[in-house]
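Researcher: Please predict.
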Amino acid sequence: MRSHAPPVEPVTHIGIDDFAWKKGHRYGTMVVNLLTHQVIDLLPDRTTESVNAWLSAHPEIEILSRDRGGTYADGGRQGAPQARQVADRWHIMSNLGEAVERFLLRERIHIPPQAPDGAPGSEKASALDLPALSLADPSPFSPASARWQERYREVQELHAQGKSLHAIAKQLSLARNTVRRYVRQAHSAEPTLARAPRPHRKSQLDAHHEYLLKRWQEEEHNATHLLSELRERGYTGSASSS
């Protein structure tokens, strides 16, 4: 911010994301030219108003790449209504990785134990014998917890400063219920971030699982046709049952 950077030249493709002046206390916004991969400007905060003002001064912008938070989305809609907003690749891959990880951890109770050597299906079972998903030795929820625990600490620091849940959620781009949950865990030694494994719920479709799998492998992907066939087999549930 103290450097004498040249004025920002016309730019059509930009990416914006936040950065920390001081973690947990003060954040700014970085603007990057996506065509040259160069930082072209730094904003002193990460508010909708600042982003709106910067974008309004650059009506030539065509593409705005951002995270999935509401602050930059609102700033983009207000300041650059002509621009196409896209989710940046890093956040897409990060969110996808976290979603897959949570799914695997939640569903690990359904992964069968490894079959003895030579037993039918032993090769298939060994492919599922991942250390983090082993039934015999389930690992703690760790790969994403460092990132989440950092968010947890930021929430606690901001709450200790007297900021409201709404203000914290807006500043950190978190859901208010998430902020409320973190605040309630303030007296715990560590935040309880991992979800307990979800038990399998019985469904009327369980009896037709093998049939549906067979028909799907036969390239029958029309839900209406499949439902009609299930009705003939005695299925009495609704189309939305799972």
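Model: Residues 122-143, 189-194 have pLDDT under 50 and may be disordered.
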